[in-house]
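Weekly structure sync, notes
Attendees: PL (lead), two postdocs, one rotation student
Agenda item 3: pending single-chain targets
PL asked that the sequence for the first pending target be pasted directly into the notes so everyone works from the same version. It is reproduced below exactly as submitted, 216 residues in total.
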Amino acid sequence: MTETTVVHLMRHGEVHNPTGVLYGRIPDFHLSELGRKMADRVAEHVAGRDVVHLVSSPLERAQETMEPIARTFGLTPDLDERVIEAANLFEGRKFGVGDGALKNPGTWWLLRNPVKPSWGEPYQQIVRRMRDAIETARQKAAGHEALIVSHQLPIWTIRSAVENRRLWHDPRRRQCSLASLTTFTFHGESIVSVGYAEPAKDLLPVKDAKKFVGGA
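Predicted structure, written out during the meeting:
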């Protein structure tokens, strides 16, 4: 019989970001108190699962999200650069709906090609690294389950690739809320289904205006 393996991609919890900047890969951005509650909620949600392998982005917010999950399963997560946030030239700046960024001529060159995108890491590159990381996790958890804590844009990009959607998109339409789980089920080496769940849905804050670029 074909072996079934499950790989969960979890987006980290809410981050303490009082200035509202696009933090991207900038270090020293940590979970808020609410973000830690979200992480605890997901740990409770997956506690009965057959998880044998854990992977985290090296960024602080991802590792902090992983902490209660690692305790739940008694596992030490691998840190994997391949599941890190996407590189973005707007890091450290405010860039959102209604803040006037699109009217600033200084941003126009960076926004010249939304298909690539011109402001950051190419979508195809994100797909390659995420696909490789997921395959490694699938092999290490063969016949069981793995959980990877990553970030919104990488998770949505690889899901779009798996579901044969175009990679360039409106970030406001991503289905990848804070502390959500995007789940790939494999039979052998092939993905046979994609699931989505929001275990911390009741903890989600009132949605802020979505960003035009980047993720979280």
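Discussion points:
- The first strand starts at residue 4 and ends at 11.
- The radius of gyration is 17 Å.
Action: rotation student to compare against the earlier draft before next sync.
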